[in-house]
TrEMBL record:
<comment type="similarity">
    <text>Belongs to the sigma-70 factor family. ECF subfamily.</text>
</comment>
<keyword id="KW-0238">DNA-binding</keyword>
<dbReference type="Pfam" id="PF04542">
    <property type="entry name" value="Sigma70_r2"/>
</dbReference>
<dbReference type="InterPro" id="IPR036388">
    <property type="entry name" value="WH-like_DNA-bd_sf"/>
</dbReference>
<dbReference type="InterPro" id="IPR039425">
    <property type="entry name" value="RNA_pol_sigma-70-like"/>
</dbReference>
<keyword id="KW-0731">Sigma factor</keyword>
<dbReference type="InterPro" id="IPR014284">
    <property type="entry name" value="RNA_pol_sigma-70_dom"/>
</dbReference>
<feature type="domain" description="RNA polymerase sigma-70 region 2">
    <location>
        <begin position="33"/>
        <end position="98"/>
    </location>
</feature>
<dbReference type="InterPro" id="IPR013325">
    <property type="entry name" value="RNA_pol_sigma_r2"/>
</dbReference>
<protein>
    <submittedName>
        <fullName>Sigma-70 family RNA polymerase sigma factor</fullName>
    </submittedName>
</protein>
<keyword id="KW-0804">Transcription</keyword>
<dbReference type="InterPro" id="IPR007627">
    <property type="entry name" value="RNA_pol_sigma70_r2"/>
</dbReference>
<keyword id="KW-0805">Transcription regulation</keyword>
<dbReference type="InterPro" id="IPR013324">
    <property type="entry name" value="RNA_pol_sigma_r3/r4-like"/>
</dbReference>
Amino acid sequence: MTDQAHAMTLGERGARALVEYREGRTGAFEAFVRDATPLLWHVVRGQGVAREQAEDVVQGVWVSFVRHAETIREPQAALAWLLVSARRAAWSAVRGTRAAAARARPLPDDIDEAGEVPDAGVGPERHLLETERDRTLWRVFARLPERCRQILRCVAAADRPDYRAIAEVTGMKVTAVGVTRGRCLAKLRALLDQDDRWEWS
């Protein structure tokens, strides 16, 4: 990614990717898919879609996006289109799952990346401490209000948070996202400070 592209928000990169894709150039589009997929994943998982189904839902959103690439009127709306489509596809997937069988209790939304295979150089004691730290973090994270969980998931999913995209996901005003993000982080820190098992500095 060039320095200029890195300085753009995810929404701006989406607009550029769509324009270039329509012109037959795919480089920016491939980079946009790589950067936006984690955000779509969190949106889909946040609606209660099981992990094993979320990948198919996200892939389906991208297929639909390519199919409608020529009909999206405003390139600046590309990211918003993806987010709305991901949310709707997630709702549809959840309804389908409930209709097929009683829905199993899901794992916490944001525990996907926890529990990875430890680095070979990390001893068992350190790995145990890190695992306990992660469990404590996600347990405390689950106590935050839903809006805080949404905002912090979106922030964690992108290397450069796009407040317009977060506003689209949460239904907030763009101007309120930054302030609310700060308050949510403060709440998370306060809850962690109150937990005796949180000893990670």
